[in-house]
Structures are given as structure tokens and as C-alpha cells.
């Protein structure tokens, strides 16, 4: 399981990409992504999205806790 409980930025994107890569290397059956983010950088969001789409391991994402959010990333600078 991986938590995205911060703004989307380069560090959080790198963390999630590494998590997905590690899951593939270790033969994990899936990656669970728990999301609570106000959004953030568009380039970092794209990096995360590309890693999810390219992953040989299924990635399941859900918004948590109750009242949490998965808001839009919009800034590219």
C-alpha cells in the first residue's frame, strides 16, 4: 500500500513510481494507492499516470479517509 497524502509534486511522484516498480520486481499481486490530495503539479501527475498505465501489476486507487479528496493537478511551473 502507498499513501498519497500530500500535494502532487516531484517527490511524491518519484515515491509512487518507485513503489510501482518495486511491486513489479517483488511479484506483488497489486498496488493499493490510498489518495488524499489537494492536487498539485501537472507534470508530476502525468509521471504517476504513465507509471500506472505501464505497470504490469494492477494498481487500485481509492480516496481515503472519509472527506478526503483527489483534486485536480493544474500547475506546470
Shape: globular
Overall pLDDT confidence? 94
User: What sequence of helices (H) and strands (E) makes up the elements?
Assistant: EHEHE
Q: What is the helix content?
A: 25-40%
The biggest beta sheet reads: 3 strands, parallel
Distance between the termini: 29 Å
Structural class: alpha/beta
Helical run tally: 2
Flag low-confidence runs.
none
The counted number of beta strands is 3
What does this structure look like?
The radius of gyration is 12 Å and the shape is globular. Helix 1 links the parallel strand 1 (2-4) and strand 2 (31-35). The protein has 77 residues and is of the alpha/beta class. The mean pLDDT is 94. The chain is built from 2 helices and 3 strands; from the N terminus they run E-H-E-H-E. A 3-stranded parallel beta sheet has the order 1-2-3, with helices on one face.
What is the fold's blueprint, element by element?
Blueprint: E1 2-4, H1 10-26, E2 31-35, H2 42-54, E3 59-63
Parallel strand pairs: 1-2, 2-3
Helix pairs in contact: 1-2
